[in-house]
Amino acid sequence: MPSCETQTMLGQARRYFTQMAELFGSDLILTEPDVLSRLNGSGDPQALSAFCESIRTCRKCHLAKSRTRFVFGTGNPRARLMLVGEAPGEEEDLRGEPFVGKAGQLLDKILGAIGFSRDEVFIANILKCRPPKNRDPEQEEIQTCLPHLEKQIALIQPDIIVALGRIAAQTLLGSTDPLTELRSRVHRYAERPLLVTYHPAALLRNPEWKRPTWEDVQKLRKLYDELVGDKPG
Ligand code: SF4
Questions:
Q1: What are the DSSP calls for 59-112, one per residue?
Q2: Which residue ranges of the chain lie beneath pLDDT 70?
Q3: What per-residue confidence (pLDDT) applies to 182?
Q4: Which residue of 23, 99, 115, 144 has the fewest C-beta atoms within 10 A of its own C-beta?
Q5: Does ligand 1 come within 6 angstroms of the Cβ of 146?
Q6: In this predicted structure, what is the pLDDT of residue 232?
Q7: What integer pLDDT is reported at residue 5 of this predicted model?
Q8: Predicted TM-score (pTM) of this structure
């Protein structure tokens, strides 16, 4: 994201409730704290923002030399659902945001199909800086950058994590199993469930993977409803 100001759902939710109250009267809708407690987890937005500021000029690996912008991540800093991809691509590097462009639009559609918007979840990558020509991240880069993501997860405290693609899945799970195998079960990461599915960029290249992805996100929504509770919308 262009700056370290984290977006919270609080402002959006307050605007929504104000509008609803103006239209229908405040006694016809759920009270704000009731609903907000269902939308937000126990993450720490201020600490997340401070952490972003503290690493936005990171030069711990050689990708700092070729990046245009550092890409921290975006979304609700108290998200109950967090998605982790691989690394910024060309557009993400230019804009400082993860999952923009066609892969990002597809991700928005996938989230929308199971009732989530981008603002409700938090989206980040294993690497915060773009590998040249979108090559696969190198192990040294991954191991150098991984503590940033681990700290992000600790501050956001999502209830569920989804790894998007092989690199994210293998890194978070410390596995060399192929993606098809990792997709088939619910894993644990830092005491929370972790699901694996295809990266949206891979879906653009392989449309036949859309059906298995649909099955994965159905499983995700079911797990979310079981663990977090039915969400509005
Ligand atoms: S990829 Fe990660 S470790 Fe390397 S410079 Fe960027 S933020 Fe730092």
A1: -SSTHHHH-SS----EE-TT-SEEEEES---HHHHHHT-SS-HHHHHHHHHHHH
A2: 1-3, 5-39, 230, 232-233
A3: 98
A4: 23
A5: no
A6: 60
A7: 63
A8: 0.86
Ligand 1 pocket check: which of 143, 144, 150, 171 to mutate, most ligand atoms within 8 Å of Cβ?
A: 144
Using DSSP's 3-state secondary structure scheme, residue 188 falls into strand
Tokens at 44, concatenated: 């720490």
Cβ atoms of residues 79 and 41 within 8 Å:
yes
Question: Which residue is closest in CA terms to ligand 1's atom 7?
Answer: 128
| Cβ burial 101-111 (10 Å sphere, 16+ → b, else e) | bebbebbeebb
Q: What pLDDT shows up at residue 4?
A: 77
Written as one letter, the residue type at 207 is P
Strands 81-85 and 160-164 turn out to be parallel
Amino acid of residue 118: R
Q: How many residues are recorded in the chain?
A: 233
Q: Which domains does the chain have, with CATH numbers?
A: 9-227 (3.40.470.10)
Query: Are the CB atoms for 216 and 183 separated by under 8 Å?
Result: yes
Is the distance from the beta carbon of residue 128 to the nearest atom of ligand 1 less than 6 Å? yes
Q: Are 73 and 125 in contact (CB under 8 A)?
A: yes
For residues 198 and 183, give the distance between their C-alpha atoms in angstroms, rounded to a whole number.
8
